TrEMBL record, chain A:
CDD domains: TRAPPC6A_Trs33 (cd14944). InterPro entries: NO_sig/Golgi_transp_ligand-bd, TRAPP_component, TRAPPC6/Trs33. One of its GO terms (cellular component) is cis-Golgi network. The gene is LOC107222441. The lineage of its organism: Eukaryota, Metazoa, Ecdysozoa, Arthropoda, Hexapoda. It is found in: Golgi apparatus, cis-Golgi network. This is Trafficking protein particle complex subunit 6b. One of its GO terms (biological process) is endoplasmic reticulum to Golgi vesicle-mediated transport. Pfam families: TRAPP.
UniProtKB/TrEMBL annotation, chain B:
Belongs to the TRAPP small subunits family. Sedlin subfamily. It is found in: Cytoplasm, Perinuclear region. Its main location: cytoplasm. Keywords: ER-Golgi transport, Transport. SUPFAM superfamilies: SNARE-like. This is Trafficking protein particle complex subunit 2-like protein.
């Protein structure tokens, strides 16, 4: 009986206030840690792959839990929709605002106010635009990891135009 | 209760097999192995059929005189196989569903261990206890 109450945590609705920011703090520290432990990076080019790899692990594991009570996915689009709606709202408390696809394996996930970017800089300012990509590496890995666990091998890149909004490009690799 | 519990990975490699009677382990290994084909078959026809086939529980895979074999496939392409004694009177569909549900949450807990490398054999005490509970040995 002891084990069963452990796994009810993930599906909780909005619970408290503290857990909202804990993830952001932890994420910020992870970014700092990864950047400080890498010294060999060239000028203007940051070594973000450890961050991406952490995201991969988290995405891979979280999928195992989130999809437990879910019906089997019909196809690739169904899977991506699950990620846009359920994974996103369980992590970032909102859904992806816009999903585009060419039906040939390219998906563009558009978030108008990405949670990890909302607190840096004034809206539409370009002050921190150069630093912003380091905040997206973890999420790129997260997307790649969760897709990998669901059987879709992909590459994920991110793009920022104006600050709180960002785009994730998912390119599915067909065999 | 269950006599054998198996977890099969994405690439159909065994991740975990536990039998209540270790002397007959080979026999169970064969049974589990044979059922993988039936699972694949069920998963592939699932695309065309109606919504109820999209359930994770795959139902009875096949039965022999003394055993009944049930299957379950997660969204993450992991398959669970449970062998039950045919003579067991309490063989309701719902109870089998409950067994798989327990197994799935135990598996999710084992995978969420950050020291577990995805794709490896499962070596977890927590998972062991859950399986033992399902088999009625504890």
């Amino acid at each position: 009986m002891k084990q069963q109450n452990v796994d009810t945590k993930t599906n909780l609705p909005d619970t408290g206030e503290a857990d909202e920011c804990l993830f952001e703090y932890l994420h910020a520290e992870m970014v700092n840690y990864v950047l400080s432990s890498k010294t060999n990076g060239k000028e203007g080019e940051e070594e973000l792959s450890p961050l991406e790899w952490m995201g991969f692990g988290v995405g891979y594991r979280i999928m195992e839990r989130l999809t437990r009570e879910w019906a089997r996915f019909k196809d690739e689009l169904d899977t991506i929709k699950f990620i846009c709606m359920d994974l996103w709202s369980s992590l970032y408390r909102k859904q992806i605002d816009n999903l585009r696809t060419n039906h040939q394996g390219v998906y563009v996930l558009h978030d108008n106010a990405f949670r990890l970017l909302t607190n840096i800089g004034a809206p539409d300012s370009t002050q921190y635009l150069r630093e912003a990509p380091r905040l997206l590496a973890f999420t790129c890995g997260l997307l790649r990891g969760s897709l990998a666990n669901l059987g879709i091998v992909s590459t994920v890149t991110a793009e920022i135009a104006t600050l709180p909004s960002c785009k994730f490009h998912v390119q599915v690799q067909r065999v | 209760m269950a006599v054998c519990v198996a977890v099969i990975g994405k690439d159909n490699s065994p991740k975990y097999i536990r039998c209540s009677d270790e002397t007959a382990a080979l026999q169970f290994h064969y049974k589990v192995h044979t059922s993988i084909d039936i699972i694949e078959e069920k998963l592939n026809t699932g695309n065309k059929m109606a919504a109820d086939v999209r359930e994770l529980f795959l139902g009875l895979l096949f039965s022999t005189e003394e055993h009944k074999i049930f299957g379950y496939a997660t969204n993450t392409k992991i398959k669970f196989i449970v062998v039950l004694q045919s003579t067991n009177a309490s063989l309701r569909d719902n109870e089998v569903r409950m067994i798989f549900r327990k197994l799935h949450s135990a598996y999710a807990n084992a995978v969420c261990n950050p020291f577990y490398v995805p794709g490896d054999q499962i070596q977890s005490k927590g998972f062991d206890t859950a399986v033992m509970e399902i088999m009625g040995v504890s």
